Amino acid sequence: PPKREKFSPDRKLRIYIAGDSLAVVPGQSLLRAIGGRSSMEAPGEVDGRIASGLERPDVFNWFEHIPKQMRKDKPRAVVLMFGGNDDHGFMTGLPPGRQVDGFATPSWTEEYRRRVGGIMDTVTRRGAFLVWVGLPITNDPTQTARFDTINGAVLAEAAKRPGRVAYLDTYFFFAGEDGGYSEYLASGSGRLVKMRADDGVHFEGAAGDLIARKVLALLNKRYDLTSWRR
Predict the structure, then answer these.
(1) Main-chain dihedrals φ then ψ at residue 204, nearest 5 degrees
(2) CB proximity list for 55: less than 8 A, separation 6 or greater
(3) Cα(230)–Cα(163) distance, rounded to whole angstroms?
(4) Per-residue model confidence (pLDDT) at position 189
(5) Does an H or E element contain 71, and which?
(6) In whole angstroms, how far apart are CA 100 and each of 64, 119, 186, 199?
(7) Cβ atoms of 47 and 16 closer than 8 Å
(8) Strands 40-41, 13-19: pairing kind
(9) Within a 10 A sphere around the Cβ of 63, how many other Cβ atoms?
(10) Angstrom distances, CA of residue 56 to CA of 5, 6, 88, 105, 111
(11) Overall pTM surpassing 0.90 (yes/no)
(12) Integer distance in angstroms from the first to the last C-alpha of the chain?
């Protein structure tokens, strides 16, 4: 693993948070957590774009937007969450001569992995560490299976970039005792807490806080954010 870079109140770790609508609630939780830590800062709000993703750059082009944000904000850590709108077979922005035969086919998977890998390289070639938050279980088993396909593509690309990209698997964060979808989960005190929105896909604030804690744990593992206190 790379040497842990040190940050302090005099040299803060800058964090950029972006993604589709699923990224908004966890991103806001992460912003609140960052606000209470003097060695970290965020240059702005969560860069969340509803109905966007990596499949349809004609809707919103993250492949152009993220490089601009990296140049403008110069973050040393990036947190991304994509895929909630990418579980379809139709893609735009295909290179000349490339075709996609439908969702989860070999051609779709190859192209989606190429796009995921491109985003990862865009972030990490500038020296930033990337935490990619995986898609959660949903109340629709068919949708969950599609999300699994997307998570598999992301995990495969993250594994090719050890030390530069961390994949945060959220699936079992929100599974009940039987391993299936659960809207409510028991807290440490045994009280049931609503974790998922009524649509069965998006997050409630408590779920966002849980993801934010897991992201911060990865950032603390990658960077030295506390030794300045001594």
Answers:
(1) -90, 170
(2) 85, 86, 88, 90, 91, 92, 112
(3) 26
(4) 83
(5) helix 62-73
(6) 22, 20, 43, 30
(7) yes
(8) parallel
(9) 14
(10) 36, 38, 10, 17, 12
(11) yes
(12) 24
